[in-house]
Amino acid sequence: DKGNHRHFMEKEIHEQPEVISHALSNYIDFHSQTVRLDETAIDFGKVSRLAVSACGTAYLSGLVGKYWFERYARLPVEIDVASEFRYREMPLSKDEAALFISQSGETADTLASLRYCKEQGLRIGGIVNVKESTIARESDGVYPILAGPEIGVASTKAFTCQLAVLASLAIGAGRMRGTLTEAEEKQMVRSLSELPRIMSGVLNDIQPQMESLARELSKFHHVLYLGRGTSYPMALEGALKLKEISYIHAEGYAAGELKHGPIALIDENMPVIVIAPHDRFFEKTVSNMQEVAARGGRIIFITDEKGAAASKLPTMATIVLPNVAELIAPMVFALPVQLLAYHTAVFMGTDVDQPRNLAKSVTVE
Ligand code: F6R
User: Fold this and answer.
1) 246-294 pLDDT tens trace
2) Distance CA 193, CA 225 (A)
């Protein structure tokens, strides 16, 4: 049932504040402001490295997770798309653990990667939405994302719930490994607990702007997304979401890679969507934006209040989100990324919930 929404995708985008709060309450004790993790599945305090594997949007949530585990828990993460991971014959040892991220829990390549790691004697964690799935069954420990059924083929609420779970795991791992203090854990948990309120505020505030921007975006044939740090996987996710439902060609790049190739493409016919909260990388990303502007590129700037005040570059549009803690920015910035893809597809008249050639669950190679 779509309720009063035109598509399941729209409904699922708007469900995010609610489902993320379910997801978080499974991992966080809000009273003591601590993360609680079951160490019997994976003992994050002891593992030497994490191998992470997934496909599509689930892979991109894993890529954000890599930044978090490495920064907050000082735990090295090796991550790859499952269709490569399963054939790479990656050397693994028993003191490592492996995480597999899958909404459906049935993706063939992800499952094959899981079985490869199992044969190597690794502890296996499954981050899944469908608890009765094959990946859940074959994991030593299941980390449910509790997003509820996701019907739209393009993943939205599963993505942000995967992020919420990965953030919780990274904080928990940081505590176990002694790389986060109790005060830091509390501070991060407080930030996570603000997500439902912040996300619903953003969903209300940016809706009209996203619709009118989507009308403009639907006139272009190529779009480039740029981001740095955790905004880099978000740029990849923006490009994936736009291409799969609107069929507009889109690419995501690490902002610093701009001058190593894609800058050759910049002209007034290819808008550049820059995802840049005012974080440690902001100045760097703004200098990449300057390079785009200097070549006549049109910029759609997705930033926060501080970022909007700090950059004076002319843009085609600036989307201003509230200033939030660095940890939760990916979940907040996911919202304009999803809405822009959604409304652009609606303008293009595509089948938003069932894009051509795509299946919700890819159970063949
Ligand atoms: C994109 C999308 C796909 C899936 C991918 C993995 O919006 O939905 O890229 O993320 O097919 O599916 P799961 O998570 O079921 O393994």
Assistant:
1) 999 999 999 999 999 999 999 999 999 999 999 999 999 999 999 999 9
2) 29
Regarding pTM above 0.95, the answer is yes
Closest by alpha carbon to 309, among 282, 331, 328? 282
Task: Answer yes or no: is pLDDT of 341 > 80.
Answer: yes
Rounded to 5 degrees, φ, ψ at 63 are -65, -40
204 C-beta neighbours (distance < 10 Å), count? 10
Mutate which of 242, 362, 365 for ligand 1? The one with the most ligand atoms within 8 Å of its CB, which is: 362
pLDDT, one tens digit per residue, over 156-168 is: 999 999 999 999 9
**Known catalytic residues?**
360
Distance of CA 302 to the CA centre of its chain: 15
Instruction: Report the C-alpha gap between 95 and 46 in whole angstroms.
Output: 8
Average pLDDT for the chain:
96
Tell me the mean pLDDT in the region 40-44: 88
Is 85:54 a contact under the CB 8 Å cutoff?
no
Residue of minimum CA distance from atom 5 in ligand 1 = 56
Q: Ligand 1 in contact with 236 (CB < 6 A)? A: no
Ligand 1 pocket, residue 103 CB under 6 Å: yes
User: Does the Cβ of 57 fall within 6 Å of ligand 1?
Assistant: yes
Structure tokens at 301: 């700037």
